[in-house]
Amino acid sequence: MLKRLYTSWPEKISLFANNGQGHDGLIVFAKLHLSSFTITDFILSAVLKCCGRVSAIREGSQLHCIVIKHGYHRDNIVMTSLVDMYSKCDRIGNARQAFDEMPVRDAIAAGAMVFGLCQCGLTWEAATLFEEARFKDVALWNSLISGLFLNFEGEKALCYFRRMRLCGEKVDEITMVGVLSGCADMAALSNGRQVHGLVIKNGFGLYLPVGNALLDMYAKCGFMDDACVCFDSLPYKNVVSWTSLIMGFGKHGLGSSALEAFDRMEIEGYAPNKITFVGVLFACCHSGLVDEGWKCFNNMISRYSITPIMEHYTCMVDLLARAGFLEEAFEFIERMPVNPDARLLTALLSSCFYHKNTELTRNIGNKLLDLEPKEAGPYMLLSNFYGLLGDFEGVAKVRRLMHKRGIRKEKAYTWIEIDKRIHRFESGDRSHPLYKSIYAYLSELVAKMRTKGYVPNKSVVVQSVDEHAKEEILLGHSEKLAIALGLISMPPGSRITIVKNLRVCVDCHEAIRIISLIEGREIVARDHSRFHRFKNGECSCGNRW
């Protein structure tokens, strides 16, 4: 009986590793290691995968010692798993050392190393290692392409994808999922449609992850009708399919459609998971469906026995606060069985700011600063709040805290796809070949915008510069640069779609609203939380985002 139990342990560890339950896998291995069970390459690879999934660097380093002790440092499969583990734990130096010590550096090991370098932002080194590889299989190509997409280098990733096909390398399902996911992140619709053609040509549509990636791509490119067609065309569906559809509706502010999809999901017998409920609550939040949100939250607990996670609580607080129920949101936080994190308090702070509740804004702001958030967003929100009140000591206090804690604003990027080419801008960017035309067009456009009531919102500029310099900084925001390129490069009347990695700033939101009126264009802007559809001087978000 004992022997039979032991022989199931390696399979259990592998199962936990493949299902993303890294901590459970490590617990099982700890029990196994205390027994007299023989360590094998299969077990070591599975446990290293568990360590990578949960960034367990201490346990991973101990496993490295076990690898050497048992002589598996000469085993390519185990060493590849070791490289992958160190990469996922952001220990790229250890990963490179393990890679260099491998007896034979095959394409699989090179792929793990290439992807790890990309994860750390070392894309030049990743590309160099890729070029040095004597044998390039589809897995190595996939690693580089996915890694470049992950590092926001979409145009370079698509170049390697084209080169892969020109070299005659056969694409596989993983290639399709990786490229479609990258196109989705950049809203590269033309490239995404081209890949869709390859999916049909190669018969990959029957592979569910590819079908789900197609659905996600069209949704994130702003074409929910096409996303729905892809969804209905799936030969079979899983919870990921339904969740992607619901998330898509939510990002577009189509809360009622998201709830209808959720009802269909339940009727057809699919059990929603915790991520599904994040999507449903998010959709309710961005459509002002307070009663429906409460109903879903309560059903999640009572009917499906799902314990709320911080994301669920954040959606509920955001839902209540956006609707103006600030005191109810605050009381909800007080009743929570867990302490709120910085993201949750930031959501409440944003609504307190919007609804001009000064007392609650100060209260929540102080609680938020006590948590020492690592992102710049909360600090910027508080700084703007104090600035509008004329409390310059408050502004100075927040900025001193940012400096003391080493908080820097995350670099903002905006992408636009024109004729299948991806153009990326950052604030003040002058690297584009057409930058002189872009800035000249913007200057003329701002003059027209002023006649329609546009006043630059200089409160979003944190630099200590004069008023004219602040206006110049606002003019160079990445959203405006991308839209200007679209206006001078795309046919009159055509829809312009941009993607920003952060929240669209208040000034750019107002500017784009007026530009859509002046230029007679539909402009779609997707930021890190939702879509904004600007048309005839109106935005689909109702100026609440």
From TrEMBL:
<feature type="domain" description="DYW">
    <location>
        <begin position="453"/>
        <end position="545"/>
    </location>
</feature>
<dbReference type="InterPro" id="IPR046849">
    <property type="entry name" value="E2_motif"/>
</dbReference>
<dbReference type="Pfam" id="PF01535">
    <property type="entry name" value="PPR"/>
</dbReference>
<dbReference type="GO" id="GO:0008270">
    <property type="term" value="F:zinc ion binding"/>
</dbReference>
<keyword id="KW-0677">Repeat</keyword>
<dbReference type="GO" id="GO:0003723">
    <property type="term" value="F:RNA binding"/>
</dbReference>
<dbReference type="Pfam" id="PF20430">
    <property type="entry name" value="Eplus_motif"/>
</dbReference>
<dbReference type="InterPro" id="IPR002885">
    <property type="entry name" value="PPR_rpt"/>
</dbReference>
<dbReference type="Pfam" id="PF14432">
    <property type="entry name" value="DYW_deaminase"/>
</dbReference>
<dbReference type="Pfam" id="PF13041">
    <property type="entry name" value="PPR_2"/>
</dbReference>
<feature type="repeat" description="PPR">
    <location>
        <begin position="238"/>
        <end position="272"/>
    </location>
</feature>
<dbReference type="InterPro" id="IPR011990">
    <property type="entry name" value="TPR-like_helical_dom_sf"/>
</dbReference>
<dbReference type="InterPro" id="IPR046960">
    <property type="entry name" value="PPR_At4g14850-like_plant"/>
</dbReference>
<dbReference type="InterPro" id="IPR046848">
    <property type="entry name" value="E_motif"/>
</dbReference>
<dbReference type="InterPro" id="IPR032867">
    <property type="entry name" value="DYW_dom"/>
</dbReference>
<dbReference type="GO" id="GO:0009451">
    <property type="term" value="P:RNA modification"/>
</dbReference>
<dbReference type="Pfam" id="PF20431">
    <property type="entry name" value="E_motif"/>
</dbReference>
<protein>
    <recommendedName>
        <fullName>DYW domain-containing protein</fullName>
    </recommendedName>
</protein>
